[in-house]
UniProtKB/TrEMBL annotation:
<dbReference type="InterPro" id="IPR038765">
    <property type="entry name" value="Papain-like_cys_pep_sf"/>
</dbReference>
<keyword id="KW-0812">Transmembrane</keyword>
<dbReference type="InterPro" id="IPR002931">
    <property type="entry name" value="Transglutaminase-like"/>
</dbReference>
<protein>
    <submittedName>
        <fullName>Transglutaminase</fullName>
    </submittedName>
</protein>
<feature type="transmembrane region" description="Helical">
    <location>
        <begin position="12"/>
        <end position="33"/>
    </location>
</feature>
<dbReference type="Pfam" id="PF01841">
    <property type="entry name" value="Transglut_core"/>
</dbReference>
<keyword id="KW-0472">Membrane</keyword>
<feature type="domain" description="Transglutaminase-like">
    <location>
        <begin position="313"/>
        <end position="375"/>
    </location>
</feature>
<feature type="transmembrane region" description="Helical">
    <location>
        <begin position="155"/>
        <end position="174"/>
    </location>
</feature>
<feature type="transmembrane region" description="Helical">
    <location>
        <begin position="95"/>
        <end position="112"/>
    </location>
</feature>
<feature type="transmembrane region" description="Helical">
    <location>
        <begin position="53"/>
        <end position="74"/>
    </location>
</feature>
<keyword id="KW-1133">Transmembrane helix</keyword>
Length: 400
């Protein structure tokens, strides 16, 4: 990658990028033109420490919220929280963050500040004395430059915080225009991928597929008009329309063969409950199929040369969201389960992207449940009460 391509990638001035650069440079410029004397250095350092502490402890609070409230690790919710309140949070996963996150943030933030003050008592005072002597001996230009350098950590804190709030706002505010702006900002995507996701999701960020936007494409061909156009939500009943999913029809995508049927029969052998069968198929696909990033990139560029659907996915042991879902349909049908292929949007950690998953009917419970084999390595996506936290816009593409 040459210098020009690098500059084009990170210096593209869409609206989100402009906002982020503004947030970053304003503190530096302000510090340069409105420099403070040496008597304010300790205050500046303390301000930097608080900014850094807030970011670190915000992420810690997020991790605690996810593990305690969402994933129910450590057994805290079961032991100390009334069942009625936990059921309420299960039914309203976004409120888990809105209600619990601020409480945990306050706790860890003030604990963190107390620890910093103790450390400062033994380390900051001697350091400030040295900085006083160094700063006072510099010229006017050097003092302005030093002021900007002292403001650099604060500027980094600001740009990370703004990126974080933009990132999570897409979960709580369904705004397609905002989602488009975020997708267009290379700077925002770099910050999310490099800083926010590794911290907020830890190993989860490394295991869940980074689903690429536009790697799942639905195209309708209206034979009566001999034209094609992307459309997800049309009514096909009174039209002669063929719908293609990543270059194949739905019937072609879910088509099975004797090997898939035999595999499914072996997986559910000896099982009598629908839920048990559905979970076994979910586990098998999640453990045996890998996300195909090469195929995702090809489809993003309109190249459908790699076959899609259940058969090709079973044979190659890799695919993208439609392939995972099509294979689940084929296996569920072989196991005599009622199943749906569903399209909509999934949150990939950065933005909402086109996605596909499944619903399966559980006779003993008399209800349909959600499953997402593509997200298998990212957590529990089999009948999760928090499934709708990162899935939205459900459209039933087919039912068998």
């Amino acid at each position: 990658m040459n210098l020009r391509s690098i500059s084009m990638k990170y210096m593209s001035f869409d609206i989100i990028t402009v906002v982020l650069y503004t947030v970053f440079f304003v503190p530096l410029i302000k510090a340069f033109f409105f420099k403070k004397g040496t008597e304010a250095l300790e205050e500046d350092i303390w301000s930097i420490e608080k900014n850094v502490a807030f970011i670190v402890e915000f992420f810690i609070a997020l991790i605690l919220t996810k593990n305690i409230v969402i994933l129910r690790n450590f057994g805290f919710m079961e032991k100390y929280v009334p069942i009625g309140f936990t059921d309420f949070l299960d039914g309203n996963p976004r409120l888990s963050y809105i209600l619990i996150l601020p409480i945990l943030l306050c706790i860890v933030y003030y604990i963190g500040l107390l620890m910093i003050k103790v450390i400062n008592y033994f380390t900051l005072s001697p350091l400030v004395s040295l900085l006083h002597r160094f700063y006072s001996r510099r010229g006017e230009a050097a003092k302005r430059i030093l002021s900007s350098i002292f403001a650099l950590p604060r500027a980094l804190c600001y740009i990370i915080l703004v990126s974080f709030f933009l990132n999570w706002s897409t979960l709580f505010v369904f705004n397609e225009k905002l989602n488009t702006y975020l997708n267009e900002s290379n700077l925002y995507i770099v910050i999310v991928d490099s800083v926010i996701n590794p911290i907020t999701k830890s190993s989860f960020a490394q295991s869940i597929p980074n689903i690429l936007n536009d790697s799942f494409k639905i195209v309708e061909i209206d034979e009566s008009k001999n034209s094609s156009a992307p459309n997800v939500s049309s009514d096909y009943k009174n039209r002669n329309v063929i719908v293609y999913y990543n270059g194949v029809t739905l019937d072609e995508g879910v088509k099975s063969n004797k090997y898939i049927k035999e595999e499914a029969s072996n997986i559910v052998s000896g099982m009598s409950k629908d839920k048990e069968k559905a979970k076994a198929l979910y586990n098998w696909i999640g453990r045996n199929v890998d996300y195909d990033y090469e195929k995702a990139n090809l489809i993003m560029n309109g190249n459908y040369s790699i076959p899609s659907g259940a058969i090709s996915t079973y044979e190659s042991r890799k695919g993208i969201c439609f392939d995972y879902s099509a294979l689940y349909v084929a296996m569920a049908r072989a196991a005599n389960l009622k199943v749906r292929l569903v399209t909509g949007e999934g949150f990939n950690g950065t933005t909402w992207v086109s996605h596909a998953w499944n619903e399966v009917y559980i006779k003993e419970d008399k209800k349909w449940i959600n499953i997402d084999t593509t997200f298998y390595n990212g957590g529990n996506y089999f009948n999760s009460k928090n499934f709708n936290f990162d899935h939205r816009g459900t459209q039933i593409a087919g039912e068998w």
